[in-house]
């Protein structure tokens, strides 16, 4: 089982975001992948036009699985993307409810959670989302990857740590008590990060639209104005799940188009 994991495309109607996403997707198409996961901030302003753009660019021969981030707007996301046409257990919510979806791809299950709080940059798994995830994990008949946008740990970055997932303890305990969970996948940080959470791998995909500078590698004080690096190439995580259940992750940058 091999799948690509990308995040933070931030489609905004402009050429730059579109071309960076196209660069990644063009490289991924034709690879022997089982799926592609995009872990949130699909759009930059959450408009229907931005989701139409995403729908035209985030396509491949394999399922492309999406979940929302803090820049996404649930009503417009649902109207244009719906359950994004992948898997057999798409989001059945409506209006402003969290967009949670489950997808069966090959021999694994993707449980994708909406960690966004409308109108805010930080995240939270609402009680109904945790209840939904608990039910999904209890009934899972195959290995599960749990996806969300907001990382549930501190990254030791003063700006990012102010907008992480809030109140992660119940979520962590649920992961710890669910032996079928292979790993937790997130985005939001615009940085490739490997850690652990609830005794499982926690893997953050690098950003497509930009990269976050690190405080110990950046002269001077980081601010929201200078922490974003728009010159780094877009990155991709490749997750490989062996038959014995061992997970390996490779981080790569997408090459310039030929």
From TrEMBL:
InterPro entries: Calcineurin-like_PHP, CNP_phosphodiesterase-III, Metallo-depent_PP-like. It holds the Pfam family Metallophos. Keywords: Hydrolase, Iron, Metal-binding. Belongs to the cyclic nucleotide phosphodiesterase class-III family. PANTHER family: CYCLIC NUCLEOTIDE PHOSPHODIESTERASE CBUA0032-RELATED (PTHR42988:SF2), PHOSPHOHYDROLASE (PTHR42988). It comes from Hamadaea flava. This is Metallophosphoesterase. Residues 3-191 form the Calcineurin-like phosphoesterase domain. It comes from the Bacteria.
